[in-house]
Design brief:
Length: 90
């Protein structure tokens, strides 16, 4: 019983540690698919999502490997500010 409990605790800690330290692949892109995904991530969240979905069968990319929620929020905030500036000009 204690061995099973220890196994589950070890497994849980391993999963927690791997998700807590996961960094976007844009820190060190491995191949052309990663480089393109990073370029799309820098462009916009929707461009990244479109690229990931369009190449899903070929590259099997995961959206959150190339961006973080904080980066997406910053990009959305910048886009909202740009829309407000354009609306103020009109």
């Amino acid at each position: 019983m204690q061995t099973i409990r220890l196994t589950f605790i070890t497994l849980g800690l391993t999963v927690l540690a791997s998700t807590a330290t996961a960094a976007p692949r844009c820190d060190a892109p491995r191949d052309q698919a990663d480089r393109t995904a990073c370029a799309k991530a820098a462009e916009s969240p929707s461009a990244l999502r479109q690229y990931v979905e369009r190449t899903r069968a070929i590259h099997q990319l995961y959206y959150w490997d190339y961006t973080t929620p904080e980066q997406v929020e910053r990009q959305h905030a910048r886009a909202a500010e740009a829309r407000e500036r354009l609306a103020a000009r009109d």
